[in-house]
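Async update (no meeting this week)

Hi team, since we skipped the sync, here's where things stand on the single-chain job. The sequence we agreed to prioritize is pasted below, unchanged from the tracker. I ran it this morning and attached the output directly underneath so nobody has to dig for it. Comments welcome in thread, and please keep replies under the output.
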Amino acid sequence: MSKLLELEKLGQSVWFDFIRRSLILSGELQKLIDTGVRGVTSNPAIFEKAIAGSDDYDMAIKELIKTDKSIDEIYEALAVEDISMAADVLKNVYATTDGKDGYVSLEVNPHLADETEKTITEATRLFETLSRPNVMIKVPATPAGIPAITHLIGAGVNVNVTLIFGLENYKAVAEAYLLGLEKLAETGPSARNGHAVNQVASVASFFVSRVDTAVDKALHKKNAHELQGKIAIANSKIAYAEFKSIFSGSRWEKLKDKGARVQRVLWASTSSKNPNYPATLYVDELIGPDTVNTLPPATLDSFMEQGVVAQTLTQGVDDARRQIGELAELGIDLKAITQQLQDDGVIAFSEPFDALMQSLSIKRERLLAA
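Output:
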């Protein structure tokens, strides 16, 4: 039995944080599914590498040029086709897990991170265009994104909430999800092919390794090296404890009685950025029920080779709280750091999106000339 299937027995699903047309057409994605991969995530940086960094898409781009499409329309057509094909490959996973897994995620334009109504419009349009039950639309957990999440869940749209770094932000995301479920239970879905309250799904993508990258720098300045490499895990374990608290009690039970699903926590940014840390640090230490870990190719390979399967997420929570307390005593503001990480994350996704548009423009001119 593969380690991914062992994780599944402990209640954690592994998704693959990568997409490229050749991955789907070659049958490699199906092989990953056979090994235990249960979903796929994408982001603008991944699409930039796939489309601009290969010739996989040249023939498709040529055909799209003939229809006189704009650069934005060419990108969307390429992305929608990739997401659609991946969703079709994963449809059996979606069926056999009763809609728990088998999802593929597509992000809204990152430049809409501060615009609620435009985010709602684009997310709804993408969901309806893809017209597949196992597609999630990625929406950032920015102040403008939070009300969009409530609206989209209330309309029956599956949502992958991204760029969550801090505890308070996570709590706001979970509240937005619950409000959306309550609206959906009352009014039913309004999006075309939208899901009912017992079918709609969402994950809260909580970013991990980047927290250590930022906090370790602050700790180095304080000459407090004993906490380095520990705060990201501590932050995540406290968020998971909050998840268990939120999805219990009378409010949740009313929704659960109507078939509602919990909004699983998805661990994102789980590759080790520090070469001195184990490659599987942010996988091994975050294993627990009702969670997802989305792994880039290198981290997935490392986990298959050297990862340790054990339920770790509920272990050492008191230590985690103590470590966060010690951080505050040192005068390091974790809330400010996680907010800055979210702000930087929006930029980090906007820049490859813009680079992709520029690359498509150059490729379009080159193909036209050829």
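Quick observations from my side:
The radius of gyration is 20 Å.
The chain is about 55% helix and 10% strand.
Reply here if anything looks off.
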